[in-house]
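Technical appendix A lists one of the benchmark inputs used to test multi-chain prediction within the project. The record comprises two sequence entries:
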Amino acid sequence: MSLTKSPPSAVADPRPSGPPGAGLSARAAGLLAALLLLAAVVVLSLAVGAKPLSAGEAWRGLVDRDAASYTVVHQMRLPRTLLGLLAGAALGLAGAVMQALTRNPLADPGLLGINAGASAAVVSAISFLGIVSFTGFVWFAFAGAGAVAVLLYAVGGGRGATPARLALAGSALNAALYSYVSAVQLLDTASLDRMRFWTVGSLAAAESSTVWRVAPFVAVGLVLAFALARPLNAMAMGEDAARSLGARPERARIVAIVTVTLLCGAATAACGPIVFVGLMVPHFVKVLTGPDLRWLLPYSAVLAPVLMLGADVLGRVAVRPSELQVGIVMVVAGGPVFLYFVRRPQGIRPRARRTAGARAASGEVAAP
Amino acid sequence: MTLHHDTHPAPAPAPAPEGVAGPATAAPASSSAAPPDATAAARLSGGGLTLAYDRRVVAEGLDVAVPDGSFTVIVGPNACGKSTLLRALARILKPSAGAVVLDGRPIAGWPAKKLARTLGLLPQTSIAPEGISVADLVARGRYPHQGLLRQWSREDERVVTESMEATGVAELADRAVDELSGGQRQRVWIAMALAQQTPLLLLDEPTTYLDIAHQIEVLDLCARLHEEGRTVVAVLHDLNHASRYATHLIAMRDGRIVAEGEPGAVVTAELVEDVFGLPCQVIDCPETGTPLVVPAARRRAP
């Protein structure tokens, strides 16, 4: 777990690059490992399904037009995998940005009502306007997510927003919007079936057109999120400290809300309100990278799709020949893991404690 | 050791050279206050300041100047507006009237990062992100020197290392900030402010919550930073500390400046009675010769 540990003696040495004491190479190596893990899950996602393929078959299906597996891979599994990648990265990043923005470890686009806003708009569109295509969904999802984000900003205190007020306003909006979604579903039994799959979160209905429509939004969100890493880092130390460092908290807050809206709107439109990934992944990543968002965000963007695709693959094999939706698998399988994680106090920062313990033992540092 | 803030060009033709040693090269206590005319040419000053939180007015029509190269200490009773004044000088708080002027230009018009390369503030309350290491926290002081195109550099590395050495926290570099003692933590925060490399350094109650040994440790550090050429402004609670370390003392009450100048001239029994409402004697400190406030003993009932 101790990716960021570096020997104390190395600290005073001038090192070519990287934050001091941060172990740039360790963090970079970890990111590379995460990318490899992602590649492995992508292969699994291409290979596993109603018609299992070997890794070699999956590869031939991907690149060779004449291969027997070409149709399966390109028609079904590739769009699904790409969508999982995009939605996973979007939700993981949105969660990480949200947690940094509200300085609340429980903040999550699901928890703050952004996903619920997108859901409410999409459910309204299905039920009242009879819209069924993704092209229709996506704008409603953005409108819903955006409206909630603006409302959240206003109710949370505008320019003077505090983390606590944002979190409170978010949970209230979230509860209200989900009640609305449930009410519409119960009243409109005809559309219920269609909505049912959408509102639990699924990658199964993915088409390549959906992927290409989502991609630009996620790409913009990704760039904005990475640009926010340093300002949000500064804001983590409090408003006054951020200002005296030359950061502009008001501006960063607005950009952050736009970013989260883009990412959540796109992900929710494409595969329904998938919760949990935005909450859990940044938590787990924080243990690996520490609180520095310049590392936490890229790690989240890579590891969130690992979780997403992993859950999707699991859902395909768990109840064969049927399938479980990714949103359900994620919560059912991920919930206990997350609980274990939260309950384990030393899981928060094993590095620091171990280092301190080791030094105290060697008598290097006087007790404070 | 010196932190090379002279590697940055002065943002404007500063009236005094940045590295001004001033009259304060000896023990800070025995040095004389900045000459009176320094006030007119001060890099940092405020005129006609009205300071308010929402509707609650803390100070009105406040004129203040920080003499260049001074260790200015602002003292006064609780809620007299001293921290508010410091926040206004650092542009954390926008005055509802009047303006703070830095290097001849209203501070309100300074670009955020340029201001942060000239003037640093250590706020009273800062939050150390959970699990952050000392080195990572100090490195965040480099924020105003970085940008999208200018990421982490050797220069940043060097300054962070120097800042940690200057504050004596280099050996803690890998420790988590959460598990340090109060004195160590405060030195880490000061190291972060140092890494900003600003010729002006503002500290809001840097000794609060520290025991006496750590208070002195932090103040000695501030005095050294001042001797190295920085203009230091601090809000302090302890009058005796203020008298010992300040080269320029500003005493405030009810949002007004009651007296300012060299501590030896300013700190008198009358002033303490006037500002704090505390009857006392002022004697010479046996250690430094600076004024030492001895509160009057409670009279026993006859």
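Chain A has 14 helices and no strands. The CA atoms of residues 56 and 332 of chain A lie 31 Å apart. Comparable benchmark entries are summarised in Table A2.
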